[in-house]
């Protein structure tokens, strides 16, 4: 009985050591951290022609969807531009820090101006994705030219939109 007990203890210690060694090896390779994630990028962008309005509503409307691969956002907003012949050509998303991004609207301007008391706006819809899912914190600063339009902050409590 003493030999059986000693063999059982030796086998248990050997299996425990093999398990710890395998865990250290696999943990060091990063195999447990390699879950598929999306790349931070703009997936679609649409804009209208500029129109002159007396009191532009530039309040953003943001929809967010989360999957195991990341967060997918759709931002609809009116962007104030220089004049009625201006338009927003494109939107780009760049990573500016750890879990921080800048969404920039690129505009083309012309010489025309709106009547007194009116301002030109372009309606935009931008869909983009970031590699942070669910309640993972991330931030997106939305900019046009040299000014910040608004900021998006995702927290474990949900998405917050902070207007400038």
In short:
With 164 residues, the protein is an alpha+beta fold.
Describe this structure in words.
There is one protein chain. Helix content is 17%, strand content 49%. It is of the alpha+beta class and 164 residues long. Strands 1, 2, 3, 4 and 7 form a 5-stranded antiparallel sheet that branches. A 5-stranded mixed sheet has the order 5-6-8-9-10, with no helix packed on it. A hairpin with a 2-residue loop joins β9 (147-155) and β10 (158-163). The radius of gyration is 26 Å and the shape is rod-shaped.
What's the helix and strand layout?
Blueprint lengths: L1 H28 L11 E7 L3 E3 L7 E6 L4 E11 L5 E11 L2 E9 L10 E12 L7 E7 L2 E9 L2 E6 L1
Parallel strand pairs: 6-8
Antiparallel strand pairs: 1-7, 2-7, 3-4, 4-7, 5-6, 8-9, 9-10
Radius of gyration, in Å, reads 26 Å
The average pLDDT score comes to: 89
- What is the CA–CA distance across the termini? 78 Å
What portion of the residues fall into strands of 2 or more residues? over 45%
Largest sheet: 5 strands, antiparallel
Overall geometry: rod-shaped
Order of helices and strands: HEEEEEEEEEE
The secondary-structure class comes to alpha+beta
Share of residues in helices:
10-25%
How many separate helices? Answer: 1
Extended strand count: 10
Uncertain stretches: none
Overview features:
single chain, 164 residues, alpha+beta, 5-stranded antiparallel sheet, 5-stranded mixed sheet, 1 helix, 49% strand, rod-shaped
